[in-house]
Amino acid sequence: MDTRELMKKATMFHGHICPGIAIGVLVAKYALEHGFEHSPDEELVAVVETDNCSVDALQALLGTTYGKGNLIHKDYGKSNYNIYSRKSKKGVRLALKKTILEKKKLSRDEKIQKLLGLEPENVFEIRDIEYDPPRMAQIEESVLCNICGELTMDSRMMNYQGKIMCIPCYKEFKK
Fold first, then answer.
1. Rounded distance, CA 150 to CA 42, Å?
2. How many other C-beta atoms can be found within 10 angstroms of the C-beta atom of residue 174?
3. Does 7 reside within a domain?
4. What does the buried/exposed string (b/e) look like for 46-69 if buried means 16 or more CB atoms within 10 Å of the residue's CB?
5. Which string of DSSP letters, residue by residue, matches 91-157?
6. What are residue 164's DSSP bridge partners?
7. Is residue 55 part of a domain?
8. Spatial separation of the C-alpha atoms in residues 51 and 79, rounded to whole Å
9. How far apart are CA 148 and CA 158, in angstroms?
């Protein structure tokens, strides 16, 4: 798989070139080369532990998106990526090696070039994981918040003092 072509596609989606996109490209490259196919629906699931630029590469290249419910963000601040295939019932974890971007004084462009010159196995600690993806996305009814009147997913509504309200109104009401 041509890393440069993947980088072009991810950069077009993301809007600019950066080391984070290069990291995400390498995650996607590994997944695509190891039997994890692009996901037109929810066949593939990515559980990411960061909200940095790398996640956009996964959306562009793997078809894992927030809107489809097959991109799950866990806010741990780590460059770790769990990829699951519902089709093959496989899971893999890629964790950025601590030595990959050591504190050497590299420019942004040098970091990008360094990353793109490496194979994913040189960038990540990679291991198979138990097949345990999050459940498929649920379609839920929207209901009106008794306080602000905005439509909100039924599962996100709070019942407080007999009023059914959205989370922001609940937080404001409880002050």
1. 29
2. 10
3. yes
4. bbbbbeebbbbbbbbbbbbbeebb
5. EEEEEE-TTTT-S----HHHHHHHHHTS-HHHHEEEEEE---PPPPPPP--EEE-TTT--EEEGGG-
6. 159
7. yes
8. 9
9. 13
Digitized pLDDT (tens) for each residue of the chain, 175 residues in all: 799 999 999 999 999 999 999 999 999 999 999 999 999 999 999 999 999 999 999 999 999 999 999 999 999 999 999 999 999 999 999 999 988 766 678 889 999 999 999 999 999 999 999 998 888 877 889 999 999 999 999 999 999 989 999 999 999 888 7
What backbone phi and psi angles, to 5 degrees, belong to 151? -70, 135
Statement to judge: residues 108 and 33 lie in one domain = yes
Whole-angstrom Cα distance, residue 124 to residue 170? Answer: 42
Residue 137 lies in a domain: no
